[in-house]
Fold this sequence. Notes:
Elements: H1 9-25, H2 29-36, H3 40-47, H4 55-64, H5 70-81, H6 97-108, E1 111-116, H7 127-135, H8 143-156, H9 158-161, E2 167-172, H10 173-177, H11 183-196, E3 202-207, E4 221-225, E5 233-236, E6 243-245, H12 248-264, H13 268-281
Parallel strand pairs: 1-2, 2-3
Antiparallel strand pairs: 1-4, 4-5, 5-6
Amino acid sequence: MPSRRAPTERQKRLGAELRKLRMAAGRSTDHVAGLLGLERTRISNMESGIRVISPERVRMMTSDYGCSDTAYVEALVAMAGNRERGWWEQYRETLPAGMLDIAELEWHASRLRTAQTVHVPGLLQTEDYARAVFSSGLPPMSRLEVELHVRHRMERQRVVDEIARPYEGYVHEAALRMQFGGREVMRAQLRHLCSMSERENITLRVIPVQCGAFPGAGHAMLYAEGAVPQLDTVQLDSAHGPVFTHTATDLTRYQAHLEWMAKNTLPADASRDFIHAIADQL
């Protein structure tokens, strides 16, 4: 199988899961190399996502590791077998790899949940609002760079629009009042949020300022549920690009954040009325 110089997050995740299973089973890389008839270095490359793993080899490895969780094994096999180029690949070499990894993560998730404190959710942004967000960064992007980022963001929205992936978003009141692009752009954005929140697959809930302090206030968060719980992933924004984590400790922490928000934010209908009221004030 060919190797890759820069594996995607999804490819690295498959390798990480196989490494975790191997270590839990007490198998050495030498043992697996003998099982598959490969050099030891190729096993390390598979587990780091650098080298492609075939579905057949995934089955051989998981069987040897004694993994009896059929749903988990089939999910790993599906990850290895999916070789089709996603729509995001057209942006390879023109946009940061992390942005493509986010799009791929969303595309393959079974459900999406986000929490935003400064911006409205990316999957629900209008073109004008997204353009204002990307135009506000430093160092400033060229006009072409801004438009590439906007187009990519609009295509990401296919996951909740065309595919109707279940989506639950929590957005802080502060993000609803920050006028990216000016009053008219923000008013249109708020109206769009209300319209999208009426769709069956979309739930949008507001964190009002009266809530005071809340968990995860310092960053935006995406919780992408995998085909099985073991493949859930959390993505956090940072000044240096997206950060991905899937350790059991981190997944439990961010699940608790979302549970807190489900209990303490405005209900969906009240949130829609709240957003309408802010739009009317502009």
